[in-house]
C-alpha cells in the first residue's frame, strides 16, 4: 500500500470514516495530520491499534485536549479496547496530573462512552479489601520496580513529612491505582512513561519509569514505539527530550 492507502485503511479501522480530502476549510491541514499519524507513524513499530489508542488517550488527558480525547475514546473502542481499559488508562493519570485535570478527562471520557451506548458506572476494579492494605500491597508492586529510593531520598523532610510523603506516594500511586484490575502492570508502566514525556519537565521521573517499565516486561522497542506515537500529539520537542533523557536505557541491546 502507498501512504494514501495506508491512511485510508487506518482511518476506517479507528474511526469508521474516510480519510480527509482537500475539501473543507482546513482540508489541506487535515491531510497532513492524517497522513503523518495514520499513514506513517501507525505503521512504524510493533504496537497494535489497541495499545496505540491507550497511548493516545494518555497523552490527550495529559494535554487536556478534551475534544480529541472524546474522539479517541471512540477510536479506542473500535480498536478493541474495553471500556474498563479506557477508564483505567484515564484514572491512573491522577497521581501525575492531579485530581482536577483528571476529573476533566474523566468527564470527557464518560460523555464519549455514554454516546457509544455504554452504561455507566462500569464495574469497579478495586482489589483491596480495606484501606489498611493500601500501603503493603502498594509497596509489593513498587519495590520490585523502583526499590526504596523515594523513601530513602526524603528523610530530610521536617517532622512527620519524612515518612508521610513517601507513604502517600506508595498508597496513592501503587495502592489506590496499580493494584486495580483492568490493565496489566506492564501496560500501566508503559502508559506512565508516555504521560511523563507528554508532561514535559519530568525527565528525572521519566528515566526512573523507563527503568520500571523495562522491569515490568516492556521491550525497548515497545517503549520507543510508544514515545514516537505519543510524539504525534505532544510534539517533536517533547519526543526528542524524552528520547535524549533516556538514551542510555533505550539504546542498549
Please give a structural write-up.
There is one protein chain. It is built from 15 helices and no strands. It is mainly α and 253 residues long. Helix 3 (49-62) packs antiparallel against helix 4 (66-78) and helix 3 runs parallel beside helix 5 (83-91). The model has no long low-confidence stretch (mean pLDDT 97).
Portion of residues within helices: over 70%
Q: Low-confidence parts lasting 5 or more residues at pLDDT below 50?
A: none
> What portion of residues belong to β-strands?
under 5%
- Indicate the multimeric state: single chain
Helix-strand string: HHHHHHHHHHHHHHH
Counted by DSSP, the helix tally is: 15
Radius of gyration: 19 Å
Overall spatial form:
globular
Q: In terms of structural class, how would the helical and strand content be classed?
A: mainly alpha
Query: What gap, in angstroms, lies between the N and C termini?
Result: 31 Å
| Total beta-strand segments | 0
Main beta-sheet annotation: none
Mean pLDDT: 97
Identify the notable features of this structure and list them briefly:
about 250 residues, mainly alpha, 15 helices, globular
In summary, what is this structure?
The chain is mostly helical.
Which helices and strands occur, and which strands form pairs?
Layout: H1 3-15, H2 27-40, H3 49-62, H4 66-78, H5 83-91, H6 94-97, H7 99-115, H8 133-146, H9 149-153, H10 161-178, H11 185-199, H12 203-215, H13 220-234, H14 236-245, H15 247-250
Helix pairs in contact: 1-2, 3-4, 3-5, 3-11, 3-13, 4-7, 5-7, 8-10, 11-12, 11-13, 13-14
Amino acid at each position: 500500500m502507498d501512504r494514501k492507502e495506508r491512511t485510508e485503511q487506518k482511518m476506517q479501522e479507528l474511526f469508521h470514516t474516510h480519510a480527509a480530502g482537500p475539501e473543507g476549510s482546513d482540508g489541506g491541514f487535515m491531510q497532513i495530520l492524517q497522513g503523518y499519524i495514520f499513514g506513517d507513524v501507525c505503521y512504524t513499530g510493533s504496537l497494535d491499534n489497541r495499545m496505540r489508542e491507550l497511548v493516545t488517550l494518555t497523552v490527550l488527558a495529559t494535554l487536556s485536549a478534551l475534544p480529541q480525547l472524546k474522539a479517541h475514546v471512540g477510536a479506542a473502542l473500535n480498536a478493541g479496547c474495553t471500556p474498563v481499559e479506557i477508564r483505567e488508562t484515564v484514572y491512573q493519570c491522577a497521581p501525575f496530573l492531579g485530581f482536577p485535570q483528571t476529573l476533566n478527562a474523566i468527564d470527557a471520557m464518560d460523555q464519549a462512552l455514554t454516546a457509544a451506548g455504554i452504561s455507566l458506572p462500569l464495574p469497579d476494579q478495586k482489589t483491596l479489601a480495606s484501606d489498611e492494605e493500601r500501603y503493603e500491597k502498594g509497596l509489593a508492586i513498587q519495590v520490585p520496580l523502583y526499590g526504596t529510593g523515594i523513601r530513602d531520598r526524603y528523610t530530610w523532610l521536617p517532622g512527620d513529612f519524612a515518612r508521610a510523603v513517601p507513604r502517600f506516594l506508595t498508597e496513592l500511586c501503587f495502592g489506590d491505582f496499580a493494584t486495580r484490575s483492568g490493565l496489566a502492570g506492564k501496560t500501566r508502566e508503559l502508559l506512565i512513561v508516555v504521560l511523563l514525556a507528554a508532561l514535559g519537565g519530568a525527565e528525572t521521573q521519566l528515566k526512573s519509569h523507563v527503568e520500571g517499565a523495562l522491569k515490568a516486561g516492556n521491550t525497548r522497542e515497545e517503549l520507543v514505539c510508544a514515545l514516537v506515537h505519543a510524539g504525534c500529539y505532544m510534539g517533536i520537542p517533547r519526543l526528542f527530550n524524552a528520547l535524549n533523557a533516556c538514551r542510555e536505557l533505550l539504546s542498549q541491546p
